[in-house]
Amino acid sequence: MSSKAFASKGDLAEKKVSFDRLSEHAYAYTAEGDPNTGVVIGDNSVMVIDAQATPVMAQDVIRHIRTVTDKPVEHVVLTHYHAVRVLGASGYGAREVIASRDTYDLIAERGEADMKSEIERFPRLFRAVESIPGLTWPTVVFEKRLTLWLGKLQVEVMQLGRGHTKGDTIVWLPKERVLFSGDLVEYGATPYTGDAYLSDWPATLDALEALNPAALVPGRGAALATPEQVREGLNGTRAFVQEMFEHVKRGVEAGQDLRTIYRGAYDALQPKFGHWVIFDHCLPFDVTRAYDEATNHRDPRIWTAERDQAMWETLER
Ligand SMILES: [Zn+2]
């Protein structure tokens, strides 16, 4: 018997949505720690950054967009491949779905397994799951950097390094200095590192910080509307990633097994980070990936619904 409900299975309370304007062209659709969607309103069209989990859930984003503009949504950018952010993409009727080459490769390699795994992990976050038409395939695949002009508005779509996944992509409005980070940065929400490159993540955060953002839309949590809040979001994410990985590496060096390391990491990190949403959900996945990276798995292993359950039984029973 597990002592805790698996992943976010016990999390059934609906969250309150906020739709905040961060600059002349940038908006954030956030929901108290549920996955965020960024919105950029150009001269003639709208860009959406991360799609939500289902086409039905995308309709709520569109409803909020329609309170400020009637321009069509022409671009959807996927910050990475995770199902809870990409499977609603068809709901926007966009002309293009944009992703990095590395994200495209991950969708091809593990998108199907990830969809099944994530639907089990987050039943509440896949409202009207039957409306998902299948995997989301990008129509534009870029390497490193893509510049788009939404009329006179310059939008940079960039891959600045690995962290949350191999394909992490950010969207940057250079003139307004607004950054959409995807899950590379979280705020008041626990970073999920089950598919991460933990050795690389801090340097990627440094690259984000070097842009000197005035505002930032994290993957989860409230929009960060000032440079001070941006710093807080970056520092909090960096602290969690580094402290969790350091703890696991010390355990590996001491010859401890995964379960012992997990229990120690939980006790060490809970006082500082346990109030962040999805802490209990993420930590078993996070420590498992950290253990793999600290031992002999340079690349994250594929999570399947079956592997999720087996891991949870090992660490939480
Ligand atoms: Zn993610």
Overall geometry: globular
Overall pLDDT: 96
Q: Determine the fraction of residues in helical runs and give it as a percent range.
A: 25-40%
* Strand residues, percent: 15-25%
Strand order of the largest sheet: 1-2-3-4-5-6-7
Total beta-strand segments: 12
- Backbone CA Rg: 18 Å
Order of helices and strands, N to C?
EEEEHEHEHEEEEEHEHHHH
Q: Which structural class do the helices and strands define?
A: alpha/beta
| Unreliable stretches | none
- Hetero compounds: zinc ion
What is the overall number of helices?
8
Note the main sheet.
Answer: 7 strands, mixed
State the separation between the terminal residues, measured CA to CA: 6 Å
Summarize the structure.
This protein is of the alpha/beta class and 317 residues long.
Note the topology:
Blueprint: E1 18-21, E2 26-31, E3 34-41, E4 46-49, H1 55-65, E5 73-77, H2 83-86, E6 96-100, H3 101-121, E7 140-142, E8 145-150, E9 153-158, E10 170-173, E11 178-182, H4 201-210, E12 215-218, H5 227-253, H6 258-273, H7 279-294, H8 305-316
Parallel strand pairs: 4-5, 5-6, 6-7, 11-12
Antiparallel strand pairs: 1-2, 2-3, 3-4, 8-9, 9-10, 10-11
Helix pairs in contact: 4-5, 5-6, 5-7, 6-7
This protein binds zinc ion (ZN).
Zinc ion binds next to loops.
